[in-house]
Write a structure and sequence with these properties.
This protein is α/β, with parallel strands linked by helices. It contains 14 helices and 24 strands. It has helices at residues 22-31, 48-60, 86-89, 99-106, 125-133, 164-175, 190-201, 233-246, 261-269, 308-315, 334-341, 371-383, 394-397, 403-409, and strands at 3-7, 13-17, 38-42, 63-68, 71-75, 83-84, 108-112, 137-141, 144-148, 156-158, 180-184, 205-207, 213-217, 225-228, 249-253, 273-278, 281-285, 295-296, 320-325, 345-349, 352-357, 365-367, 387-391, 413-417. The structure holds ligand EPZ.
Length: 422
C-alpha cells in the first residue's frame, strides 16, 4: 500500500485548483439509473470512490463512457441487474444510493446492507423507513436489503435525523413515484442541492430546493441531461487549513466560497486572513499567531463534520485551549491518537476533544484510518519537525484528487512512496 513521506516546516505558497465534489458526483452518478437517456456529468473528481461508483453502474448494466478524465457520459438504458453486491458496498457505503433509483425505475432492488465503518455504525433505517412509507416492501436476508414495489407512491416523510444520503435516496425515489412526496427535516447540504438541480434538468418536479422541506411531484419518466458537479467544499476547507497551519498563503481557485461560510468564519476567528478574490477564488494567508477557538460540528450550514479532523490538526498549533465537539458521528476521533503520536496535546472525552496549544510536533510513522482523518494527518505532517510517514493513504485517495501533487505544487515537501508493507 502506498505511503506518504512528508518533511515538515515548509510554508505553503502558490495557487491550487479544487476538484469536483465527491459527495455530489456520487449521488449524481446514481441518478443516471433513473432514465434510459444519456446523462453527461462534468467536473467529476478523479478519486477512488468515483471509480467504485462507475464500476457499480457497469455491474448493473449501464454503459459509462469517460471521453475525458473528468467527464462521464452514462447510458443506463441497458441496466438489467438490480443488485449492488457486497464486495462493492463494503468498500463504499455510498453504493446505498443505488437503492432509491433502482426501486423507482425497476420496482425492485437488492443492496448489501452497508456495514459500519471507522467513524461509526452508520445505519440506514431512515432510508428504509421512508421507502416503506412510499409502499416498498423491505426485507433483510443475509445482510442484503431487498426492496420491492410495483410503483412507489408519494408520501410525507419526516426524517428523525438529518441524513444526507437518506435525503438523496428518497429524493431520487420520489422523482418517479406516483403523486407528491414531501421530505421534512431534509438535509440542505450543497451536494443535496446539486443533485436536486440535476434531477430538475432531467425533468423532475422539485420545490424547496436548498431548504429542509423538499416537495417532489413524481413524473412517469425522466430524460437525459448535462450537468457540471459543484466544487468540493471539503477539499477547499482542507487546502485553507494547509495554508493556515504552515503559516503560508494560498490562492484557491475553482472553488465555491458560498458553500463553506461556517469554515471561513471559524478560520478568520482563529486569526487566518481569508479574502474572496473572485466568485470562485479564495486567498488564504496566516501571518500572526493562531488563536484557539472551540468548535461544534453541525449539519449544513453549520461547521461540517467532514472538516472536524482537519480543524483539530490546526488547533494543535493554536495558542490556548479549544473544545472540539462532534455531534454527527459517534466515533470520529480516530485521528486524535495519531496526532498525539506526533506530540499534540489533546484529551478525548466522549463526544469532545480538548486541545491545548501550541504543541511542537515531531515527525513519526502514523496510520490513516478514514478519509478525513488521513487529511488531518497530512496537515499535521506539514508542520511536524522532520520526517512523517503516513501509511494506508488509499483512504485519502478515496476523496482527494492527487493531494500530494497539489500540496507539492505549493511548496510542500511531500512524496508518495509506492507499495510498502501492508
Ligand atoms: C454523508 O454521509 C457524506 N457521505 C459523509 O461524508 C458526511 O460525513 C455525512 O454525510 C454527514 O455530512 C456522502 O455524501 C457520500 P448521514 P451519510 O446519513 O449520508 C445517522 C466523507 O468524508 N443516520 O448524513 O452516510 C448516521 O449514523 C463522508 O466524504 C441514521 O441514524 O451521513 C449519522 O450519525 C464521511 N440513520 C448521522 O445520521 C440513517 O438512516 C448523519 O449521517 C442515516 C443516518
Amino acid at each position: 500500500m502506498d505511503q506518504f513521506r512528508i518533511i515538515g516546516g515548509r510554508k505553503l505558497k502558490g495557487g491550487v485548483g479544487v476538484s469536483g465534489a465527491k459527495n455530489s458526483a456520487l449521488p449524481c452518478l446514481a441518478a443516471t439509473l433513473l432514465t434510459t437517456e444519456t446523462v453527461t456529468l462534468h467536473n467529476v473528481p478523479y478519486v477512488r470512490d468515483l471509480i467504485t461508483m462507475r464500476r457499480l453502474l457497469e455491474d448493473l448494466g449501464a454503459r459509462v463512457l469517460v471521453p475525458e478524465l473528468r467527464t462521464h457520459r452514462i447510458d443506463a438504458r441497458t441496466v438489467e441487474n438490480i443488485e449492488a453486491p457486497y464486495e462493492l458496498v463494503k468498500t463504499m457505503r455510498a453504493s446505498v444510493l443505488a437503492l432509491g433509483p433502482l426501486v423507482a425505475r425497476f420496482g425492485r432492488a437488492r443492496v448489501s446492507l452497508p456495514g459500519g465503518c471507522a467513524i461509526g455504525q452508520r445505519p440506514i433505517d431512515q432510508h428504509l423507513g421512508a421507502l416503506e412509507k412510499m409502499g416498498a416492501r423491505i426485507e433483510l436476508h443475509g445482510g442484503v436489503v431487498a426492496a420491492a414495489c410495483d410503483r412507489l407512491r408519494g408520501a410525507e416523510i419526516v426524517f428523525d435525523t438529518v441524513t444526507v444520503t437518506g435525503t438523496e435516496n428518497i429524493l431520487m425515489a420520489a422523482a418517479l413515484a406516483r403523486g407528491r412526496t414531501v421530505l421534512v427535516n431534509a438535509a440542505c447540504e450543497p451536494e443535496v442541492t446539486d443533485l436536486a438541480e440535476l434531477l430538475v434538468k432531467m425533468g423532475a418536479r422539485i420545490g424547496g430546493i436548498g431548504t429542509s422541506v423538499l416537495t417532489v411531484d413524481g413524473v412517469d419518466a425522466l430524460g437525459g441531461a448535462e450537468h457540471r458537479i459543484i466544487p468540493d467544499r471539503i477539499e477547499t476547507g482542507t487546502l485553507a487549513v494547509a495554508a493556515a497551519i504552515t503559516g503560508g498563503e494560498l490562492e484557491i481557485t475553482d472553488c465555491a466560497p458560498q458553500h463553506l461560510e461556517a469554515v471561513i468564519e471559524k478560520l478568520r476567528a482563529c486569526g487566518v486572513e481569508i479574502e474572496q478574490t473572485a466568485t470562485d477564488r479564495l486567498h488564504v494567508r496566516r501571518r500572526n499567531r493562531l488563536r484557539a477557538q472551540s468548535l461544534t460540528t453541525e449539519v449544513y450550514p453549520g461547521f461540517p463534520t467532514d472538516m472536524q479532523a482537519q480543524y483539530m490538526a490546526l488547533m494543535t498549533q493554536a495558542e490556548g485551549e479549544a473544545e472540539i465537539v462532534e455531534t454527527i458521528f459517534e466515533n470520529r476521533f480516530m485521528h486524535a491518537s495519531e496526532l498525539q503520536r506526533l506530540g499534540a496535546h489533546l484529551r478525548v472525552a466522549g463526544a469532545s476533544v480538548h486541545v491545548s496549544g501550541p504543541a511542537p510536533l515531531t515527525g513519526a510513522r502514523i496510520m490513516a484510518s478514514d478519509l478525513r482523518a488521513s487529511a488531518s494527518l497530512v496537515l499535521a505532517g506539514l508542520v511536524a519537525e522532520g520526517e512523517t510517514w503516513i501509511e494506508r493513504v488509499y483512504h485519502i485517495d478515496r476523496g482527494y484528487e492527487q493531494i500530494e501533487e497539489k500540496l507539492r505544487s505549493a511548496g510542500a515537501e511531500i512524496e508518495r512512496v509506492k507499495g510498502g508493507r501492508e
